[in-house]
Write a structure and sequence with these properties.
By secondary structure, the protein is an all-alpha fold. The protein has one domain. It has four helices and no strands. The protein is elongated, with a radius of gyration of 19 Å.
Amino acid sequence: MKNIPTTTETTVPTEKQAAIFELQHAGEFTDIENSAIVYVLRGWFGGLAGIPGAIQAGDDAWAFTTLFEHFTSLMPYPPNLRTPTQVKILAALKIKAQASQDAVDAVLGAKNNEDERMITETDAFVADLIKTL
């Protein structure tokens, strides 16, 4: 019978690496939250303008996008530490969040890229901050 190792080696990140992982992870779910706020506000303002269904679509975008954000915030970081089940759940939540955002665009009759602008800006700041560490 072969000797099969029963333990695996793990490397503990340094304090600096751990802090960078935390910052990158915060950036990951902040990107999602940026989308959530853009779409809920678009829905609410559409509702104030009298567009039927806008408030409901905005509320749905908020609900499903923040569900995606909150679950993401609980995930291990870096992403390669996530289990297959966690990855499957994240993918399903991302699809639902995107669909709810697309519904806001459909109700309002206009696509928006403000969340993408915010995400690009946030990601660049995180990357620049990491360079200073």
